[in-house]
Amino acid sequence: MKNITEVLNWRYATKQFDSNKKISKENLDTLLEVLRLSPSSYGLQPWKFIVVNNIEMKSKIREIAYDQSQITDSSQIIIFANKKNIDSNLVDEYLQFTAKEKNISIEKLEGFKGMINGSFAGRSSESLINWATCQLYLALGNFLTSCAILDIDACPMEGFDRNKLDELLGLSSMNLESKVIVAIGYRSEDDKSALSKKIRFAKEDVFIELN
Q1: What is the bridge-based pairing of β-strands 176-185 and 153-157?
Q2: Which helix (H) or strand (E) holds 82?
Q3: What is the largest CA-CA distance in the chain?
Q4: If we measure between CA atoms, which residue out of 32, 55, 120 comes closest to residue 83?
Q5: Residue 111 burial (10 A CB sphere; 0-12, 13-18, 19+)
Q6: Confidence class of residue 118 from pLDDT cuts 50, 70 and 90?
Q7: Which of 48, 155, 171, 211 is the most buried (most CB within 10 A)?
Q8: Which structural domains are found in the chain, ordered by start?
Q9: Which of 82, 80, 100 is nearest to 92 (CA)?
Q10: What distance in Å separates the CA atoms of residue 162 and residue 146, rounded to the nearest whole number?
Q11: Confidence of residue 2 (pLDDT cuts 50, 70, 90)
């Protein structure tokens, strides 16, 4: 079994996928469970993940994503979208679910509710959406590492017209906005990017130790 640093050195933002290779249902289910289990502040999970298998829809999205071939050549694409309605209703929904899952009264969560609502109070809508976006990127990092552990290639992509994608998928009507598209599958043997040296700053340029 490869260790974690070997896994992270192996992964890269795949530029060319082998369109003939598909991810197994078992592995795809595992990756979706990874997303479901991803951490978020307060556990609020202010996100949705749209899994696109349909080739016709992928072709439409490719047009919106500046004709990047990863969209159609990959096994699937997953669109990471955050919720826009970050408010007390979102908090109430989460705490009602928490109380049910833990089989406790909602009253026992009043202190937690007050803490969350207090942290949101006075913040602008833009600030709260930025907060939700940060949570989404926690899930993204978790997802990319998990793909590599399973020997599955991935390419996170921000190069697309968000407004057009949201319109195509009807995300605005669901109070969602797209932030990242992740293409997943298996690298093509022709993808020379797989052989490129990974460029990372030296440890002394990255870490600050306080002893």
Answers
A1: antiparallel
A2: strand 76-83
A3: 59
A4: 120
A5: exposed
A6: very high
A7: 155
A8: 4-206 (3.40.109.10)
A9: 100
A10: 26
A11: confident
